[in-house]
Amino acid sequence: MIDFFLRTVIGQPNPSGAKPRHQLLAANDIRGFSQYDEATKISMHKALYRITRQACDTAGVPWRSARPEDRGDGILMIPKSAGLEVLLTVFLDEIRSGIRAHNRTVSDERHALRLRMALADGYVHREPHGVIGMPVNFLFRLLEAETFKQQLKERNAEFGLILSDQVYQIAVDYQLIDTKSFICTQVDVKETHTNGWTWIPLDDP
Question: Residue 3's pLDDT band (boundaries 50, 70, 90)?
Answer without folding.
Answer: low
